Amino acid sequence: MRIRTFPLPALLGGADISSSRAVVIDTLRMTTTATTALENGGECVFPVATVEGAKEIAHSLSALLCGERDGLKIPGFDFGNSPLEYTPKAVRGRKLIFTTTNGSLAILAAKGADRLYLGCLRNRLALANRLRESVDIALVCAGTLGQFSMEDTLTAGAIIAALPRASYMDDFSHAALALFRLHQGNVHAALSPTAHYRYLQQCGFQGDLDYCLRLDASDALPALSNDALCLV
Amino acid sequence: MRIRTFPLPALLGGADISSSRAVVIDTLRMTTTATTALENGGECVFPVATVEGAKEIAHSLSALLCGERDGLKIPGFDFGNSPLEYTPKAVRGRKLIFTTTNGSLAILAAKGADRLYLGCLRNRLALANRLRESVDIALVCAGTLGQFSMEDTLTAGAIIAALPRASYMDDFSHAALALFRLHQGNVHAALSPTAHYRYLQQCGFQGDLDYCLRLDASDALPALSNDALCLV
To answer: Cα separation of A84 and A208, whole Å?
Structure first.
């Protein structure tokens, strides 16, 4: 097993992931939220880059319009990016169009992978169980506005910690694993001085933070197929 | 004091460092080697992107031609990228032209900073003493061939650990500091599974690794001025 971890989607540029099982990680909050939406009965999630594109597709598919800019719900959208909004009542049987600042773009950047999953702390173990026979794994951290993010790195480290020992890991995989092992006892304390955690806290999303940072709480595993994410 | 740490020079793209004291870090080995060359009496070091450019400038300045591709000395060059080559006898009073795969390019990428220093583990304390009154610090890890490198991240963390407590650190600064604190007791063990450490070991450069990873062994502090690096 070979494991590479990319601190940011922009760094996929020179890398070949066409034979890789890729995991896109946007822990706070897109990949957690999309996983929850599907777990609660959403039919599928379409990641879209722009607000205009999202509106067009949502209209043509009679889908729910979901997403954020600057962490907040986009005017005219049905839902924002809080996983707590995506209750069974809200999403059951519905298609969802997602446009978010980091996660949706990371998914689109990693589309060239052999297989693409969404990863978060909540579905960490389900994901690791699915990947344990894989030859080549690429973990893609979404980051925040083009900057490295601690929470996605800790999630990458958590996934690696639950996988069999790899024959090769790149330097960033070693770093992510070490950081997860260091901080796994208190992820909230580790993240409390970091940028996006603080921003979401200031926006009043403490409930989201508690929800998103719960490890191994979900068996739901979204995978990309024909431009849509569905559970596998 | 605000501290930002960039995992790779490519990530400087969207960032403004024009008011920053920047530190370029290529621990294995360019910034260690250039620091050593100046410490041992070299007059100044010119970082140059290409082999052809290096040859031209070296000729016009009667300078020593120094650098590597794939870690090895470039054919026709005076010296490679091993700090142990840069003895007082070899370099005293000489100008040196450096072209290396990662460090030289990182220096050129960070030239827009208010002030640019070279950092490595050996001059860590000298550097931190120089920077302790700074308002805005940008640590720029050179990485290896466009990939995150553990050794540069540990060096960034070592520098942060020796600075006064910052009022703001970005996520990657937090990660670098945590990794340094975790591994400072045995940097060799932490680096032994990583890519560039192993590559240099396989090339027979164990002496370089021992030299480059020695903390606080040098007071030499190179800074960029008019395209040349000289001691300050």
So the answer is: 7
Q: Tens of pLDDT along A137-194? A: 999 999 999 999 999 999 999 999 999 999 999 999 999 999 999 999 999 999 999 9
Which of chain A's residues have a Cβ under 8 Å away from the Cβ of B146? Answer: 11, 14
Within 10 A of A76 (CB to CB), how many other CB atoms are there? Answer: 8
Closest-approach residue (CA) in chain B for A151: B171
Which residues 7-26 of chain B have a CB within 8 Å of chain A? 7-8, 10-11, 14
Q: Cβ contacts of residue A55 below 8 Å, gap of 6+? A: A65, A76
How many CA atoms, within 13 angstroms, populate the side-chain half-sphere of residue A12?
25
* pLDDT score of B30 more than 90: yes
Distance CA B230, CA B232 (A): 6
Query: CB-based contact (8 Å) between A175 and chain B?
Result: yes
Q: What is the ipTM of this complex?
A: 0.94
Taking an 8 Å cut-off on Cβ atoms, the answer to whether A194 and B174 are in contact is yes
**Contact, A8 vs A146, CB < 8 A?**
yes
CA distance A149 to A214: 18
pTM of the model: 0.95
pLDDT of A14 above 90: no
Instruction: Using a CB–CB cutoff of 8 Å, tell me whether B75 touches chain A.
Output: no
**Max CA-CA distance within chain B?**
49
* d(CA B92, nearest CA chain A) in Å: 37
* pLDDT at A232 exceeding the cut of 90: yes
d(Cα A81, Cα A83) in Å, to the nearest integer? 6
Q: Degrees (nearest 5) of the Cα angle A77, A10, A128?
A: 80
